[in-house]
């Protein structure tokens, strides 16, 4: 497995399988997670959405975000994570909603266009429709789509 760090860029790249990251790597890197200004984890850490949203695997990810206020998550990629698929991605929504509800100031949304490694062709309209399902409150939608990216990326 590969872990690299470039202090000049204050960025982190972690190359690993999800199982390795979730059950071995993440619990052992407390100091690593704390040493960086901001870390963005794509696709909610790629949870297994066939498991319970409050199950051990995803709970490790939630705990990571709870313990490290510099860790952000993209609530994206239902076309890759979902087993139920479009249009509603019903198995993906509870995972994204949980992060949005618990960390409304540290979540980002995107369509993941052009959908590399997707299991099926994604319809952008279906993905946009998910915003109101994972963030029903318009004020939280604004954070997800506007305020949080502006704060994180400085624009």
What does this structure look like?
The chain is of the alpha/beta class. It is built from seven helices and five strands, in the order E-E-H-H-E-H-E-H-H-E-H-H. The strands form two sheets. A three-stranded parallel β-sheet has the order 3-4-5. A hairpin with a 4-residue loop joins strand 1 and strand 2. Helix 1 crosses helix 3 (56-67). It is globular and about 40 Å long. The N and C termini lie far apart (34 Å).
Task: Outline the fold blueprint.
Elements: E1 2-6, E2 11-15, H1 18-28, H2 30-34, E3 39-41, H3 56-67, E4 71-74, H4 78-81, H5 93-102, E5 107-108, H6 124-134, H7 138-153
Parallel strand pairs: 3-4, 4-5
Antiparallel strand pairs: 1-2
């Amino acid at each position: 497995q590969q872990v690299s760090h470039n202090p000049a860029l204050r960025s982190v790249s972690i190359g690993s399988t999800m199982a390795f990251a979730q059950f071995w790597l993440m619990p052992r890197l407390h100091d690593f997670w704390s040493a960086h200004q901001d870390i963005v984890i794509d696709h909610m850490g790629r949870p297994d959405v066939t498991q319970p949203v409050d199950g051990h695997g995803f709970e490790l990810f939630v705990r990571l975000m709870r313990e490290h206020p510099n860790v952000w998550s993209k609530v994206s990629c239902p076309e890759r994570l979902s087993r139920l698929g479009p249009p509603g991605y019903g198995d993906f929504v509870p995972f994204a909603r949980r992060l949005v509800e618990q960390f409304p100031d540290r979540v980002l949304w995107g369509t993941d266009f052009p959908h590399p490694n997707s299991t099926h062709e994604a319809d952008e309209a279906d993905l946009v429709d998910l915003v109101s399902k994972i963030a029903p409150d318009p004020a939280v939608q604004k954070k997800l789509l506007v305020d949080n990216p502006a704060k994180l990326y400085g624009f």
